[in-house]
Amino acid sequence: MNIHKAEFVKSAAGAKDFLRDGRPQLAFAGRSNVGKSSVINRLLNRKNFARVGSTPGKTVHVNYFLVDGVWLVDLPGYGYAKVSQSEKDRWGRLMEAYFRSGLITAGVLIVDARHAPTGDDVTMLEWFRSSGCPLTVVANKLDKVKKSTREECLGIIREKLQLTEEDCLIPFSAEDGTGRDALLARLEALT
Ligand SMILES: Nc1nc2c(ncn2[C@@H]2O[C@H](COP(=O)(O)OP(=O)(O)O)[C@@H](O)[C@H]2O)c(=O)[nH]1
Ligand SMILES: [Mg+2]
Question: Whole-prediction pTM value?
């Protein structure tokens, strides 16, 4: 995958705007502020491609980036406390529509390496599971975890998400680049 061929194409606010051109779709999901945009930027070796640090929970859109003929689908973040119920409902409807669409090729769930996955993370994972697509979990912000406790943290994530042999858990840091090559290789193998 030539990461230099990457462009933002469009945002979709509803199912009628979803892209259905037959190209593979790699769907990225994660809690607001987990570093989803930063992971995408690191993956593509860009500074400000997917926007980092914009007000969390403000954008209930599906964002499409085209990377060398593959759709990188940035699903809206979840779990931000200050979001209104109506926005949460909108998020739920949009997610349901996307997962029901059958458009997803592979799922990338980004979690925080420091903490046990939240109930929302588990729900998201179940959505990926029900779509039947191969799953990759990225444990981001590893740079913030002491080396001596990293294995333990990864074990907690595996256990809480009940990861199987087919699932792939990638220790990652968007900050220092740990796991970037592994994630790229995994995604290339899936498309
Ligand atoms: N230390 C550290 N900070 C990170 C990492 N990834 C993201 N961040 C920071 O976490 C915050 C949220 O990142 P962002 O990419 O906007 O998260 P998003 O809401 O999931 O898209 C920003 O301040 C980032 O600089 C990481 O791997 N390590
Ligand atoms: Mg973001």
Answer: 0.95
